[in-house]
Amino acid sequence: MKLKGKKMDEQLNALLDTAWEKINSQGRNKDKSLINEAPPEFLEDEIFWRRSLTSPLPAVWPPSENLTLYYYAYATGLDLAGNLHDGVYVARPWARIEVMPKSDSLPKLTWLRDTLVELGIQGFRPLTAAEESLYKMWPRERVVNFLTQYRTDRSVNETSVIEFTKFFCMLMSHNSVYQELRSKHEAFYHWLGCKHDDSHDKPNLLWK
């Protein structure tokens, strides 16, 4: 039986929880009570890391009949000393989870590194109403459905393609991890045609 929605999220989270414990065993976040109880001088150089997961990206583009999706696990870090107020630290992707939505196979985790490697500082700001709406419109399950149906379902029309590309281009502009992954999904990023991507002259919305 193919896993969808909540069941798939449960499996992804179970894989991530187990893998994250291995990262923690390397010395990260061993004591979560640091947030509330550590003295200020101890927090001076402390970063509290939390695991995060990207939206699914297609392994190949255009998608094949046997669609394979990759989710990438990375981490964001809060500066507990309070020196960084308008951003978070971001770690490079440390694992990849392979999912085949059309098959009965279980999600498969591949390690990319066994410790956190900092990518840089990602600034943040409040989302606009339009951005917040776009995030709500495209939960992971809808992204999976779009990629699964892209070549075969008439419901995937030009309007939904434009909405999808807007969503992913927003992700690229908000989260440096998606820029980090560009070289692994070159054809998909080219198809997206994001305006802020220097490799494009204009949006390329439809694959034919």
Describe the protein's architecture and organization.
The chain has 208 residues and is of the alpha+beta class. The protein has one domain. The protein is built from 7 helices and 6 strands; from the N terminus they run H-H-E-E-E-E-E-E-H-H-H-H-H. It has helices at 5-25, 34-37, 129-137, 140-149, 158-174, 176-180, 186-192; strands spanning 47-53, 57-58, 69-79, 87-99, 108-111, 118-123. Strands 1, 2, 3, 4, 5 and 6 form a 6-stranded antiparallel β-sheet that branches. Strand 4 and strand 5 form a beta hairpin. The longest helix has 21 residues, at 5-25.
Order of helices and strands: HHEEEEEEHHHHH
Indicate how many domains the architecture comprises.
1
The unreliable regions are 27-44, 198-208
- Mean pLDDT, rounded to whole units? 81
* Total beta strand runs: 6
C-alpha end-to-end distance: 32 Å
Major beta sheet summary: 6 strands, antiparallel
If you compute it from the alpha carbons, what radius of gyration comes out, rounded to the nearest whole angstrom? 18 Å
Strand portion: 15-25%
Structural class label:
alpha+beta
Using the alpha-carbon principal axes, give the shape. globular
Q: How many helices in DSSP terms? A: 7
Q: In percent, how helical is the residue content? A: 25-40%
